[in-house]
Amino acid sequence: MINRRRFIQGSAAAATIVSPLSALASDVLRLPRRPIPGTEDSLPVIGLGNSNAFRQGDVDTSKRIIRTLTDYGGSYIDCGGQSRFVVGNVVSSLDVAEDVFLGTYFTGADDANARAEAARLLEITGKPMLDLMHNYPEDAAPNWDTFRGWKDEGLTRYIGVSRHRKEAYPTMMEMMKTGTVDVLQVNYSPLETEAEDEILPLAMDKGVAVTINRPFINGRFFQVVSGHDVPEWAAEFDCESWAQFSLKFILSHPAVHCVLTETTNPRHAVDNIGAGFGRLPDEATRQRMVAHLRGLAG
Ligand SMILES: NC(=O)c1ccc[n+]([C@@H]2O[C@H](COP(=O)([O-])OP(=O)(O)OC[C@H]3O[C@@H](n4cnc5c(N)ncnc54)[C@H](OP(=O)(O)O)[C@@H]3O)[C@@H](O)[C@H]2O)c1
Fold this sequence. Notes:
- It contains 14 helices and ten strands.
- It has one domain (42-297): NADP-dependent oxidoreductase domain (TIM Barrel), CATH 3.20.20.
- Residues 12-24 have low confidence and may be disordered.
- It has an eight-stranded parallel beta sheet. The protein has a two-stranded antiparallel sheet with strand order 1-2.
- It has helices at 4-16, 21-25, 52-55, 59-71, 83-93, 111-125, 137-140, 144-152, 169-177, 199-206, 220-225, 242-251, 266-274, 283-297, and strands at 33-35, 42-44, 46-48, 76-79, 101-105, 130-135, 156-162, 183-187, 209-213, 258-261.
- By secondary structure, the chain is of the alpha/beta class.
- Bound molecules: NADP nicotinamide-adenine-dinucleotide phosphate.
- NADP nicotinamide-adenine-dinucleotide phosphate (NAP) binds at residues 49-50, 78, 136, 162-164, 185, 213-219, 222, 243, 260-265, 268, 271-272.
């Protein structure tokens, strides 16, 4: 098992001085990775969501967050619109473009524009092909042949479908049943467990890699737990913060490959990465976690 004590020592240093944290903590510590089914690839278990820092073009903060991720062997960054170019420029300037896996949103309904944006991103990052082109089912489902064409011609390694609410599950499941979806992104957390019912089991059945959005319900999770201590029994699965409480719950589901955590705060990034190390809750503990949070949510 990864030496969690070393992560904690390193992350304590990182909380004080964020940018040189690589030298202190991450020389040997690398996030665990989970294999993408049917490939030689794998994804580290913690990724970054489309941060406000990316959206606002805050290059300094974007650099600190991305550097923190990659220092610990993290790779997946979810980004769309103009923020993909902010991320592209940052990973280029940090010389980590080869280390990151960009999950980028493209509109299948506008093939010409998608190709132009893809070309621009490839030029910025210097990568030979994109990692993942995906979009909401509203666009991806009716234009799936276009997505498949992008993959077939080598513009991208993977294609996928992404949404954050259960109303989208039926369409995403129909797409997965075709056997052509490589990566599913869906919402899942101890306060939003609906994905457990059908879509996560289907992803396992179909060999689809799964990334998870809304691990903190876009921040609402922290309102629910505000004023409450993390229960002592969370130490049994090496959990030290409320953020890790949610992330470790998510990572303990067998369908999940990577959780996307959105933050503008490098200290939060270190906290979130910490969830990737150490033990995970077993099934009985998972149920206890859900019950505990539902109790707090009232
Ligand atoms: N495809 C889709 O339909 C879809 C939909 C929703 C989301 N997503 C993707 O999923 C990503 C994450 O989902 P989300 O947007 O719902 O955000 P989220 O990750 O559930 O929550 C983000 C919020 O949590 C806070 N936070 C993060 N880490 C923290 C920590 N360790 N301690 C305390 N607070 C912390 C952040 O504040 P600070 O900035 O202060 O840390 C922010 O307010 C998005 O960025 C996006 O890439 C995709």
